[in-house]
Amino acid sequence: MKSRVPKRRSTLEIQDSGEEKKGKEEKDASGDEDDDHNDDAPEVLVGSSEEEAADDSDSQKDFIVEDMKKTGDKESSDEKAVSLPRQFITGSQLNHFQVVVKALMINVLDETFLKSLYGGDRTKRYAQEMMASLFHFDERMILPRLENLKQRSRWTDRYKERVECYPKVQLMKLGLHGSVCEACKLQRQCSFSVNLSGQLYDLNSLQEDQFMPSDTQAFSVCSVCASRTEVYHALKHFKYHLFQHCRTVMEEEKNGEEEPVKETVKRVFTKLEESGWISEEYEKFQDHLNEADYFQEEKLD
């Protein structure tokens, strides 16, 4: 039976590019004081959304979402340091997305913020609320779809690792050549070249690794693996690119005056919300989620 793959917009290039700090002044600058964040802390997100209550599509019934239900929403190892009350992990996807954007903005001003948040070093209420939204974003919205895409593919471990490491990808159409796809190792005509590049980075803190900054990887792949790579890579590295966008915006919105972190984030976020930037980024994110949901398991020859 033929697998139906709805048309998706073509995106052939995704390019966007320890000691604690001494003194109370640096603590204030990082936004760790109650006065810096409590006024601007996200509201507690209560009430499950319709999105969370809805059943998953048939293509996802047999993977990680089911596992999470059966284990009572068991916490992953990535959030082991933070125990989250249930009322913190509900709410609409848009609310969670907005809180994630604010967390990324804070991290632009204080590059240790996300690292300490994921590490459990910040235990105040606002930190738990941000961690809850990040957990929902990472573990409930992105991870299940990535797992589904991987499990339904024949990708080698080496290819998976490369796609997950490099934040930039370029897919180039080639003439038909070769008989073995370098992604799945199946006997298929290779009609695309997947070129991976960019700085390696930590998935939680988003801090870039300066090791081999100019390294690139290239693979000759079949059309099925090229399409799957495009969808998988866009979702896998979405948060990293969103952070880079936030960095650019924060740089553009500098007013040359010293102001508390919470005031800067509140001012810039409000401006972005009024201009429609937040909605545009959220729609892009929804597009990537939908593309992953609708990507069918390939029909093997």
From TrEMBL:
Residues 31-42 have a biased composition (Acidic residues). Residues 62-206 form the DUF4211 domain. InterPro entries: DUF4211. Residues 1-62 are annotated as: Disordered. GO terms for cellular component: nucleus. It comes from the Eukaryota. Pfam families: DUF4211. Residues 18-30 have a biased composition (Basic and acidic residues). This is DUF4211 domain-containing protein.
